[in-house]
Design brief:
Blueprint lengths: L28 E2 L2 E6 L2 H26 L10 H18 L1 H6 L5 H9 L8 H23 L6 H4 L11 H11 L5
Helix pairs in contact: 1-2, 1-5, 4-5
Length: 183
């Protein structure tokens, strides 16, 4: 009878930390596969800027065609526009660039994800800058494509802005007062 040594116990090796996420947000994937870890910040920020530019270009285009040509538009047009924008957002967030960047497409979403603890604070400013640059370039490109029609009141009024009766200081104070410190 021959004695064989007992097999050595298998000790798991420490791996990457897995953090739970909330609100269905996942860490952006690397283009090299899910096991490669998160993609570097610059490509994700570029994807975020491009997606935001495309989003704003398409929103201005949709407003131009759904609201712009006929100032006496039907009551259903805002609902149709809302549906178009909702579908557009879903498609952009689920697209490969959206999956790479996380598909925030809005600085408010980025801030909310950071406050929920599922987005790193050091990436908030680069993402917000990319989103703002993308939105400005998307609207600018729409203005180039659609010309004066993009500046007419029905399309111009689609932008979100404060009431003209509010001064800049009052708007700044209202926005600053709505920010609550991190809990």
């Amino acid at each position: 009878m021959t004695l064989t040594p007992a097999p050595e116990p298998v000790v798991p090796r420490p791996g990457p930390e897995i953090r739970p996420t909330t609100v269905g947000h996942r860490a952006p994937e690397s283009p090299h596969g899910p096991d490669a870890g998160p993609a570097p910040l610059l490509p994700r920020a570029v994807c975020e800027a491009a997606l935001t530019a495309l989003l704003l270009f398409l929103i201005v285009t949709a407003v131009r065609w759904l609201v712009g040509p006929d100032p006496g538009s039907a009551a259903a047009r805002p609902a149709v526009l809302g549906g178009v924008v909702g579908i557009l957002l879903a498609l952009l967030m689920l697209s490969p660039p959206g999956r790479c960047s996380g598909g925030h497409l809005n600085p408010a979403v980025t801030l909310a994800l950071w406050r929920l603890g599922v987005f790193p604070g050091r990436e908030v400013v680069p993402y917000a800058v990319a989103q703002l640059a993308g939105s400005v370039s998307g609207v600018w490109c729409a203005g180039l494509v659609w010309g004066p029609a993009a500046g007419r009141p029905p399309v111009r009024h689609a932008s979100v802005r404060a009431d003209p009766a509010w001064g800049d200081a009052a708007v700044l104070a209202a926005e600053a007062g709505s920010w609550r410190g991190r809990r």
